[in-house]
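hey m, so remember when u said the tokens were messed up on ur end? i reran from scratch. heres the input so u can diff it against urs
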Amino acid sequence: MAHIDYYMITLSPFCYLAGDGLEKIAAKHGATITYKPVNLFQVFAATGGVAPADRHPARQAYRLQELARVAKHNGLPINLKPAHFPTNPAPSCFALIAAQNAGGGDIGGLSHAFMRACWAEEKDVAQDDVVRACLEENGFDPALADSGLLSGAETFERNTEEAIQKGVFGAPMYVVGDQMFWGQDRLSYLDDYLSEQS
């Protein structure tokens, strides 16, 4: 059975624009997924990337055009300049890690809920009430927002270090063995690869 390590962050618009494509591909191939939230700014710093706000104006302008095109193509609503971006990703990332460890709910749904809150619903995923609502809506105990803080923080740091060591440089990044697929527009390549392995 194939396994996918999914390096992501709950604030990434391109993770949001992947929709449930990863989950559908995993279900199709009977693959498992580990959601691995990372400190993307630390990943950028270690691998030569540049945070969006620090990019050349031409790159910033193109990014907005691309986000609008991908959102339209994928039928997803998007606010190109959300009220709460950037914000502190730690609370939602820690909660995602805690929920994955606890099990029993829809982890893919939770991941999407956080990103949809930021990019389509004008909610701040750094706020406790938003984090708790997303947990509850996806079948998890909202108290994980508190109880999972320590383990979530430790795992978040480990995920980030692991990502850098493996050569991850952006998000979303889907890793199967030694094969890496960067970007929501590479999901079809991931699908093809998993088909070849079966």
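this time it looks ok to me. The chain has a mean pLDDT of 96. if urs says something different then somethings off w ur setup not the seq
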